[in-house]
Amino acid sequence: MTMRNQPTARQVRLGAELRRLREAAGLSAKEVAGLLNSSSTHMSQIEAGSSGISEERLRRLAAHCACADESLVEALVAMAADRTRGWWEEYRGVLPPVFLDVAELEHHAAFLREVVITHVPGLMQTPDYARAVFGYMVPELPPSELAPRVEHRMQRRAALDGDDSATYETVVHESALRIRVADRKVALAQLLEVLRNIEEEQATVRVIPFDTDGFAGASSAMMYIGGPIARLDTVLRDSPHGTAFVDTGSQLERFRQLFHKVEKTALGPAASRDFIHRIAKEL
Questions:
Q1: Residue 97, preceding bond cis, omega within 30 degrees?
Q2: Alpha-carbon distance 125 to 103, whole Å?
Q3: Which DSSP state fits 119?
Q4: DSSP letter string over 176-229?
Q5: Which of 33, 164, 198, 248 has its CA 20 to 30 A from that of 136?
Q6: 246-263 confidence digits (pLDDT tens)
Q7: pLDDT value at 102 more than 90
């Protein structure tokens, strides 16, 4: 198969899962390569995501590794066979690869769960809100880079549209609803957009008010992306140094528990909707 110069996060994840299968079986890359009539160099490329793998070879690899988890094997086969070139591909070479990776993961998600503390979730942002967020970067982005970032963010809404869209749940701290990234007009339009998403059942929103007791989770912001099976879930964590993709079993379990802990702190969906209405009326 053709070598990939820049594998996507999803392709890297497939390779990592194949490596985990091999390591769990106590086999070296050289041993597996021999069983597949390949080379250790090619196996390294597959496990790095820089080369693909056929369905036949993947199934042989799983058999040699004594993997009895049929749901995992079928999910990996589907990932290996996927040739989707979604809308995000038009931004390749225009935006940093992580933007495309996030959109691709959201497209394939079984469900989406998010915790936000300081900004309205990207999937519900208005163009003016997103423009203000991206426009605050240092050094300041030129218009040629700012515009595609805003356009890309708006197109990510596709993950919530349609009959096959992922279920989306988010926990939003009151600070994210009250911080004015631009002016009063933009803030009001953004709150109304969140309410529209709620009313059209595109999102389940729970709010954590400022006066909530027992909330010490200011660092719990995350995007939890559900895979076809739990083992293939992914967590996105943003930091000043970039976006990190978390996918090891122990860390995934930690973030599952963290999301539910934060969720329990928040108001219920109906009370949260009313709470957002009150904030909007104050503007």
A1: no
A2: 15
A3: S
A4: HHH--SS-HHHHHHHHHHHHHHHHTTS-EEEEE-TT-TT---TT--EEEEE-SS
A5: 198
A6: 999 999 999 999 999 999
A7: yes
The Cα 175–Cα 207 span in angstroms is: 10
Residue among 250, 248, 247 at smallest CA distance from 225: 247
> Strand pairing partners for 236?
223, 245
Is residue 173 within 8 A of residue 208, CB to CB? The reply is yes
Residue 17's Cβ-side half-sphere holds a number of Cα atoms within 13 Å equal to 29
CB 2 within 8 A of CB 34: no
Q: Where are the alpha helices (DSSP H) in 87-136?
A: 97-108, 127-135
Alpha carbon distance 43, 8 (integer Å) = 18
For tokens 């009326």, the residue is 281
pLDDT band for position 174 (cuts 50, 70, 90): very high
61 and 22 Cβ atoms separated by less than 8 Å = yes
Residues in CB range of 24: below 8 A, 6 or more apart: 65
> In which residue are the tokens 């036949």 written?
56
For tokens 């010490």, name the residue: 216
Full DSSP string of 39-81? -HHHHHHHHHTSS---HHHHHHHHHHTT---HHHHHHHHHHHH
Pairwise CA distance, residues 81 & 54, whole Å: 7
CA dist 36 and 46 (Å) reads 12
Question: For the chain, what is the total number of helices (H) and then of strands (E)?
Answer: 12, 6
Please answer whether residues 161 and 201 qualify as being in contact, where contact means their C-beta atoms are separated by less than 8 angstroms.
no
Q: pLDDT per residue over 260-280, tens digit each? A: 999 999 999 999 999 999 999
On the CB side of 131, CA atoms within 13 Å amount to 12
Kindly report the length of the chain: 283
